[in-house]
């Protein structure tokens, strides 16, 4: 009887563990934006895509004014550059970083944090590498899923609900 119980427990644990590892089944599935800039620098953003589902930014949907947001869902959004770059004119060494956003009165500031391998809601300001104000505007066609794009000139754009905000990588 004990061996049957142990077998059932082990099987259940394995199935649960496997289900947790298949991130594509999450309500906010994983996505990636990746672009090679003209100088050969590769810029990559790995994130999870929450859906709006009829909610309103700033009211019942992130970002909330004055609160740091993981700029995606689940784990921290990862911003990676293959070479040293300038973000909003500020130096940033090659490497992986956490990407966060803070909204203040509709103006979005992108935060590139030195720590990228945390759960998304964990954030420590003293670990910031760069902060840059985004160019924020209303979208004419709302984006149901949070989406990042990167163009080959280094413009990184976050589209979410009826808003979009961008910053430049040089």
Q: What is this structure, in a nutshell?
A:
With 170 residues, this protein is mainly beta.
Indicate the topology.
Elements (H helix, E strand, L loop, with lengths): L1 H20 L8 E7 L5 E7 L19 E2 L7 E5 L3 E3 L2 E3 L2 E10 L2 E7 L14 E6 L1 E16 L4 E14 L2
Walk me through this protein's architecture.
This protein is mainly β and 170 residues long. It has one domain (27-168). The protein has one helix spanning 2-21; strands at 30-36, 42-48, 68-69, 77-81, 85-87, 90-92, 95-104, 107-113, 128-133, 135-150, 155-168. The strands form three sheets. Strands 1, 2, 3, 4, 7, 8 and 9 form a seven-stranded antiparallel beta sheet that branches. A two-stranded antiparallel sheet has the order 5-6. Strand 7 (95-104) and strand 8 (107-113) form a beta hairpin.
List descriptors.
single chain; 170 residues; mainly beta; seven-stranded antiparallel beta sheet; two-stranded antiparallel sheet; 1 helix; 12% helix
Structural class: mainly beta
Spell out the helices and strands N to C: HEEEEEEEEEEE
Uncertain segments of ≥5 residues (pLDDT<50)?
4-19
Number of domains: 1
Beta-strand percentage? over 45%
Outline type: globular
Helical stretch tally: 1
Helix content: 10-25%
Main sheet makeup = 7 strands, antiparallel
Radius of gyration of CA atoms, rounded to a whole number: 18 Å
What is the tally of beta strands? 11
Mean pLDDT: 88
Distance between the termini: 65 Å
């Amino acid at each position: 009887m004990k061996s049957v119980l142990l077998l059932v427990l082990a099987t259940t644990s394995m199935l649960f563990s496997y289900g947790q590892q298949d991130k594509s089944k999450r309500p906010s599935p994983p996505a990636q934006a990746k672009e090679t800039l003209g100088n050969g620098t590769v810029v990559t953003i790995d994130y999870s895509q929450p859906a709006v589902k009829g909610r309103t930014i700033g009211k019942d949907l992130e970002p909330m004014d004055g609160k740091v947001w993981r700029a995606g869902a689940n784990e921290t959004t990862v911003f990676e550059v293959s070479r040293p770059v300038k973000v909003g004119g500020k130096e940033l060494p090659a490497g992986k970083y956490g990407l966060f956003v803070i909204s203040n009165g509709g103006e979005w500031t992108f935060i590139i944090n030195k720590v990228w391998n945390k759960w998304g809601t964990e954030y420590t300001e003293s670990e910031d590498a760069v902060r840059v104000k985004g160019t924020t505007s209303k979208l004419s066609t709302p984006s149901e899923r949070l989406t990042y794009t990167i163009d080959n000139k280094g413009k990184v754009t976050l589209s979410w609900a009826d808003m979009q905000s961008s910053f430049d990588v040089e």
